Design the sequence.
């Protein structure tokens, strides 16, 4: 048993050393302005995913119709990322779907079902986590804003390392001993830190905060923190500080202290946890959009789940598309359509918080996702 465990450890090391070489070979971000045509993949996922993604897709087609006609933008619908297909292929992402995803530049993605213990499906890896790793989407950017409370945070969650990097390679050495691995690389830490500082610089932010538990998880979190400090030295105009994850979690509910945070950079698991807490101040995970950025690909997604219960009860057409529409705003900004992004964001704020002519209740007492999308488009026309 010990030998098997040692062999597994050797495999983990080898895989990560290869990954580091791969990371080092990809230095530049893709420049969308230099492409003849931008290909946008629209991947509905499953559960309520297809319904809400279709609503957001309609809005994007409406906003980009001139560029589609001119051949500058093309939409590609990718249907196969459903739990049934993934189970059939016994893969987090079936090969044909992965190929289709890789033929795009950016992807709008609906939620996908992740099997849990007790479900009728085999325990395949989350499609989200697999896509982030396969397309090397290392920066998970999650903004949270509550203007009336002075909250304006942008989280840069490292998206390919930590406990997630080899989450399915843990070992049960014997019945008494289980070991998981957590990974931090110099390259991986520096690139997320740089992404956070670049964002701060471009967006007039004055402070970046790193969050770790480097007092206890000394080797891996220590490396992450040191990489952030190293990158901070290249941005003398931006203040840098660091907090431990436990006290940071508390400080987000401290009304005086929390308004001081602006851009926050943190390892994968802490980022996963704290962005749910942060989104709650703004109305919950259903209200937040999220982008997953890499050097070659970028993926934009709703951050809630696939709500299979709504589908079982025939209510998927009443699902709330706001989170994936927020993700579409981020997509438009990312590929250089910031004027259209601004319009969509403004229209969405009017529809969700100000005018509220239609409301989504998740049932037939409210509007359908499609009707809500029409409402957003009408609002854009009147801006
Ligand atoms: C998220 C989700 C995923 C994660 C799950 C679905 C695997 O919680 O996007 O934050 O843990 O990253
Ligand atoms: Mg999460």
Sequence:
């Amino acid at each position: 048993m010990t030998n098997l465990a040692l062999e597994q450890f050797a495999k983990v090391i080898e895989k990560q050393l290869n990954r580091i070489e791969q990371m080092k070979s990809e230095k530049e971000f893709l420049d969308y302005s230099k492409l003849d045509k931008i290909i946008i993949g629209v991947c509905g996922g499953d559960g309520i995913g297809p319904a809400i993604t279709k609503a957001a897709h309609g809005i994007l087609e409406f906003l980009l119709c001139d560029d589609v006609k001119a051949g500058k933008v093309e939409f590609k619908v990718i249907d196969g990322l459903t739990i049934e297909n993934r189970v059939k292929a016994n893969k987090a992402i079936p090969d044909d779907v992965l190929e289709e995803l890789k033929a795009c530049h950016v992807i709008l993605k609906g939620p996908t079902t992740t099997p849990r213990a007790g479900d009728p499906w085999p325990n395949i890896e989350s499609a989200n986590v697999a896509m982030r790793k396969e397309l090397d989407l290392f920066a998970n950017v999650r903004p949270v804003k509550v203007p009336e409370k002075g909250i304006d945070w942008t989280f840069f969650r490292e998206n390919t390392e930590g406990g997630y990097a080899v989450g399915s390679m843990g070992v049960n050495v014997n019945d008494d001993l289980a070991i998981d691995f957590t990974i931090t690389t110099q390259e991986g830490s520096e690139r997320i830190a740089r992404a956070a500082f670049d964002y701060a610089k471009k967006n007039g932010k004055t402070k970046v905060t790193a969050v770790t538990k480097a007092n206890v998880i000394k080797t891996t979190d220590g490396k992450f923190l040191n990489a952030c400090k190293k990158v901070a030295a290249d941005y003398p105009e931006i203040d840098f500080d660091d907090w431990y994850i436990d006290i940071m979690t508390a400080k987000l509910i401290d009304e005086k202290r929390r308004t001081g945070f602006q851009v926050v950079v943190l390892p994968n698991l802490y980022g996963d946890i704290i962005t749910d807490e942060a989104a709650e101040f703004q109305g919950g995970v259903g209200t937040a959009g999220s982008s997953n950025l890499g050097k070659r690909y970028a993926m934009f997604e709703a951050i809630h789940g696939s709500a299979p219960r709504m589908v079982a009860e025939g209510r998927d057409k009443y699902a709330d598309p706001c989170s994936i529409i927020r993700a579409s705003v981020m997509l438009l900004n990312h590929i250089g359509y910031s004027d259209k992004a601004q319009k969509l964001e403004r229209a969405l704020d009017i529809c969700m918080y100000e005018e509220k002519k239609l409301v989504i209740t998740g049932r037939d007492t409210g509007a359908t996702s499609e009707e809500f999308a029409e409402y957003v488009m009408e609002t854009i026309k009147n801006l």
